[in-house]
Design brief:
Elements lengths: L16 H12 L1 H16 L3 H25 L7 H8 L1 H33 L5 H16 L3 H28 L5 H6 L2 E4 L2 E4 L2 H15 L15 H28 L5 H6 L3 H10 L1 H35 L5 H7 L10 H15 L3 H8 L4 H16 L13 H18 L5 H23 L21
Helix pairs in contact: 1-7, 1-10, 1-13, 2-9, 2-10, 2-13, 3-9, 3-10, 3-17, 3-18, 4-5, 4-17, 5-6, 5-13, 5-15, 5-16, 5-19, 6-13, 6-15, 7-10, 7-13, 12-13, 13-14, 13-15, 16-19, 17-18, 18-19
C-alpha cells in the first residue's frame, strides 16, 4: 500500500473542471434520462410530460445549488456523507452511510440491467444475464484505471450520447406539428384508448418524476478530491452541471412533444420516443439512436462505478467499518491511485444484486428522499456556524433549503401514492435509517471518535456531535 517514497497512496488531484463535468454528465446520462425517463413520464402523464419536465427541470437546477454550497465547503471524496458528518455530526452521518450502501449496489445493478434490456431491443435473441455480467466486467475494467483515463473514455461515450439527443431535437424541430403553448396549456393523456385531460394530481406526480430525471448535480461531488483547486471551483461546477443537465434533459422531451403528429399513436407505443423517431425520422435514424442510447447506458454504468467506488473507498479510509473491512476498502492501487478493492467490491455485490430483478431493485432505490432533506438542514446549520457559503453561496438564502424541504415532502407524498415500489421503498429505507441510528446511539458513540472522516485537511469533518 506504499508509494515508492514510502508514503501511503492518496487520490491525486488530476482532474480539471472539464473532467469532472464529463464524469458527472456520464453518470447522470442525459440520453438515458430522456429516452427511458421520458418514456416513463409520457406513459404516466401523456403530453403533460412537457409541463412535468419543464417544472421538474427548474426544480432540479435549484436543488443543485444545495450540493454546490456543501460541496465547495468540504471538497472531499465520498459524496454527501462527509458533508453531513461535518455539519450535522456523526449521529446523522452513520445512519446515512448505512442507508446509502444498499442503494449504491442496487442503482449500479439497475443500470446494468437497463443496459442489457436496451441491447436486447436491438438484438432480441441475446440472453439478459450474460449481457449484465459482460457489461459489468467491462465497466469494472475501465473504472479501476486512472480516473483521468476514465474521464477520457466517458467523454468519448458522452459525445455519442450527445449525438443521439441532437438527432432527436433535430428531427423534432424539422417536423413541427403544434405550438409549445398548446402542449403546455392543454396536456392530454391516453386513458383506455381515449385522449383525456391530464388530472392535476397526475401532473404533480409526473413533475416529481421529471425532477428526478433532470437531477444529477450531486455526481460532481464524488470527484471533488481529485480536482485541481476544488474548494474554489467545485461549487460552480456542480451548480452549472445542475442547470445544463436540466436543460439538456427537459429540452428534447418538450421539443419532441411539439412535433408528434399523432398524439394517440405516440402515447400508445411501448417506447414512445423511439416510436416517434421511427415514424418521423425513419427506421435507420431510430436504429442509430437506439445504439447511441445503449452506449449511453453503458457509459452511465462506468461513471456510476467510478463515483460509487469513491464512496466505498472513503468509508474505508475514514474507518467507518470494522478495521479489516475498512483497511481493504481504503486500499488504493499504488500506481493508478484508484480504489481497487472498493471498485471490485462494488462490481461483485452489484452483479449479485442484479439477480434480484428490476422490480426489487426499484423498491430499494425509488424511496430515497433523504438527500434533499438532510442537505437542506445541513445548509441551515452551516450558515449559522459560518462553515458553508465561503467558496460558493446559494443565492436568496433561505429560499433554496426551504425549497429542498418542500421537495422532500412532495417526494414522500408521491412515493406514498405508489403502492408497488414507492411506498414499500419509503418504509424500508426509513426503517433502515432508524435502525442504524439506534445502533449508533447504543453501540457506536465511543467507537466513532476514532473515525477519520474528512482527514484530507478539512478539520470540521472530524467535529464531534
Amino acid at each position: 500500500m506504499q508509494d515508492p517514497e514510502g508514503t501511503p497512496p492518496t487520490l491525486k488531484r488530476v482532474l480539471s473542471p472539464v473532467g469532472v463535468v464529463l464524469l458527472a454528465f456520464s453518470a447522470l446520462s442525459p440520453a438515458f434520462s430522456v429516452y427511458i425517463g421520458g418514456d416513463a413520464v409520457l406513459k404516466l402523464a401523456g403530453t403533460g410530460a412537457a409541463v412535468a419536465f419543464m417544472l421538474g427541470g427548474i426544480a432540479a437546477a435549484i436543488l443543485g445549488l444545495l450540493y454546490a454550497e456543501v460541496g465547495a465547503a468540504f471538497p472531499g471524496a465520498g459524496g454527501i456523507y462527509p458533508r453531513l458528518g461535518a455539519l450535522l455530526g456523526r449521529r446523522v452521518a452513520f445512519p446515512y452511510i448505512v442507508l446509502i450502501a444498499p442503494i449504491v449496489f442496487a442503482q449500479t445493478a439497475f443500470a446494468a440491467l437497463g443496459m442489457a434490456d436496451y441491447i436486447r431491443v436491438l438484438a432480441p435473441g441475446l440472453p439478459a444475464m450474460p449481457l449484465v455480467f459482460g457489461g459489468m466486467a467491462a465497466a469494472t475494467a475501465i473504472a479501476v484505471l486512472n480516473i483521468r483515463f476514465g474521464a477520457i473514455v466517458t467523454g468519448i461515450f458522452l459525445a455519442i450520447e450527445a449525438v443521439s439527443l441532437t438527432i432527436l431535437v433535430a428531427v423534432a424541430l424539422l417536423h413541427p406539428a403544434r405550438p409549445l403553448t398548446e402542449v403546455l396549456a392543454h396536456p392530454v393523456m391516453l386513458d383506455h384508448g381515449v385522449l383525456k385531460d391530464v388530472p392535476v394530481e397526475t401532473l404533480w406526480l409526473a413533475m416529481v418524476s421529471g425532477m428526478w430525471a433532470c437531477g444529477g448535480a450531486s455526481w460532481g461531488m464524488y470527484f471533488a478530491e481529485e480536482m485541481h483547486d476544488a474548494q474554489r471551483r467545485i461549487g460552480r461546477v456542480v451548480a452549472w452541471t445542475g442547470v445544463v443537465a436540466a436543460i439538456t434533459i427537459a429540452g428534447p422531451v418538450i421539443v419532441m412533444l411539439t412535433s408528434a403528429a399523432d398524439t394517440r399513436a405516440l402515447l400508445s407505443a411501448d417506447a414512445p420516443i423511439a416510436a416517434f423517431l421511427k415514424q418521423t425520422g425513419g427506421p435507420v435514424i431510430a436504429i442509430v439512436v437506439s445504439a447511441g442510447v445503449a452506449a449511453a447506458i453503458f457509459n452511465s454504468l462506468v461513471a456510476c462505478m467510478i463515483a460509487y467506488s469513491r464512496y466505498l473507498y472513503a468509508t474505508g479510509r475514514d474507518g467507518i467499518w470494522p478495521a479489516p473491512m475498512s483497511k481493504a476498502l481504503g486500499y488504493l492501487h499504488p500506481r493508478l491511485h484508484s480504489p481497487l478493492v472498493a471498485t471490485l467490491t462494488l462490481a461483485v455485490l452489484s452483479t449479485l444484486m442484479s439477480l434480484l430483478g428490476e422490480k426489487t431493485l426499484l423498491i430499494l432505490i425509488s424511496g430515497n428522499v433523504s438527500d434533499y432533506l438532510l442537505i437542506s438542514v445541513a445548509i441551515f446549520v452551516g450558515r449559522r456556524k459560518g462553515t458553508t457559503g465561503r467558496f460558493f453561496k446559494a443565492p436568496l438564502h433561505p429560499f433554496v433549503p426551504i425549497f429542498g424541504l418542500a421537495v422532500t415532502a412532495m417526494s414522500v407524498a408521491a412515493d406514498w401514492l405508489d403502492p408497488d415500489a414507492g411506498r414499500p421503498s419509503i418504509v424500508l429505507l426509513i426503517s433502515l435509517f432508524l435502525a442504524a441510528l439506534a445502533y449508533y446511539h447504543f453501540r457506536l458513540r465511543q467507537v466513532s471518535k476514532d473515525w477519520l472522516i474528512g482527514h484530507q485537511g478539512v478539520e470540521a469533518l472530524g467535529a464531534a456531535d
